[in-house]
Specification:
Number of strands: 12
Number of domains: 1
CATH superfamily: tt1808, chain A
InterPro entries: Nuclease_put_TT1808, Restrct_endonuc-II-like, Uma2
Distance between the termini: 39 Å
Number of helices: 3
Strand order of the largest sheet: 3-5-7-8-9-10
Helix content: 10-25%
Shape: globular
Pfam family, one: Uma2
Order of helices and strands: HEEHEEEEEHEEEEE
CATH class: Alpha Beta
Strand content: 25-35%
CATH topology: tt1808, chain A
Protein name: Putative restriction endonuclease domain-containing protein
């Protein structure tokens, strides 16, 4: 048996061809596969994207993000980058170019979105990480990344219930959450 380290897993991940409709991410050397998202999930992403002015920001879905010094290539539900910083092409977007990432929590992604990706995006120095949670009907805005590797974290956390506006200083706008849907009959979780 041959030992596989994180570098080998990264090479394997880059050659992986998942079935259509499956989202695949590399999170700290672990390949994570998820089924296509729920309509509630997709409508929240679309609603957020529509509120971010295209004249100033590139709003990208299914964009792989390269986290410096990490065996991680997360695929946030939405990546926001200043239009003048966006590269002309490439599969991997360097995390240092990203202004904000958005993840919409699904029934199967709670731990990854609240714990694993929180640390990964903070390690990548992404200035703002917005978690939209249709299970708990809340928005969690994380800012001020600090630290490295698995010890990285965001110093500021603001929780807002769906229906109340979320001030996104990093984008210079206020996010209207009044139309965000929720998942019916889903058991609450304990995060953040």
């Amino acid at each position: 048996m041959t030992a596989v380290d994180e570098r080998d897993m990264t090479r394997y991940f880059e050659e992986l061809e998942p079935p259509e409709g499956v989202k695949v991410e590399l999170l700290r050397g672990v390949i994570v596969m998820m089924a296509s998202p729920d309509i509630v999930h997709n409508m929240i992403v679309a609603d957020v994207q529509d509120q971010i002015p295209r004249s100033r920001w590139s709003r990208l879905q299914t964009q792989d993000v390269d986290i410096l010094n990490e065996a991680s290539e997360p695929v946030p539900d939405l990546v926001v980058v200043a239009r003048d910083l966006l590269p002309d092409s490439g599969r991997l977007l360097p995390s240092q170019l990203v202004t904000m990432v958005v993840e919409v929590v699904s029934k199967s992604s709670v731990h990854q979105d609240y714990v694993v990706k929180r640390s990964i995006y903070a390690a990548g120095k992404v200035p703002a990480y917005l978690i939209l949670d249709p299970i708990m009907a809340q928005c969690v805005l994380l800012t001020r990344p600090e630290g490295q590797d698995e010890d990285a974290n965001y110093l500021t956390q603001q929780i807002t219930k769906f229906g109340d506006p979320v001030l996104l200083d990093v984008l210079g706008l206020e996010l209207d959450t009044s139309e965000f849907g929720t998942f019916p009959n889903v058991r609450p979780h304990r995060y953040p």
